[in-house]
Design goal:
Length: about 110
């Protein structure tokens, strides 16, 4: 998953090298949780697998090997699901409040 610009400073300058080592040296091109192979069709979804490096504890500054996992999109999204749900709720509420403020200003 791409690093959002607002989080870029939270990652070490050698993040690309760390991520590569986890995905291709340690995991040898396979998802460490489900075994899906990089650049091959996913055995469940059929979509092309692109391995990413996930922070197990969701803290980008913590780049210890034991906190990192090479994951396919499916496993990474499932791991981060609670964060995506929280962000969706917050964004929905923000849009609702912005719309309400716009309506109030029009009065």
């Amino acid at each position: 998953m791409p690093i959002r610009p607002e989080n870029k400073e939270r990652y070490p300058s050698n993040w690309k090298e760390i991520s590569y080592r986890i995905r291709f040296e340690r995991a040898e091109g396979f998802c460490e949780w489900c075994g899906a192979e990089n650049y091959k069709p996913h055995p469940i979804t059929g979509s092309k697998v692109i391995l990413t490096t996930a922070h197990i504890n969701h803290i980008p500054e913590d780049c210890r090997d034991e906190n990192l996992a090479a994951l396919c999109q499916r496993c990474h999204l499932n791991h981060d699901r609670h964060i995506h749900i929280k962000n969706r709720r917050e964004n929905r509420e923000k849009r609702r409040l912005e719309k309400e403020l716009t309506l109030l200003k029009a009065i």
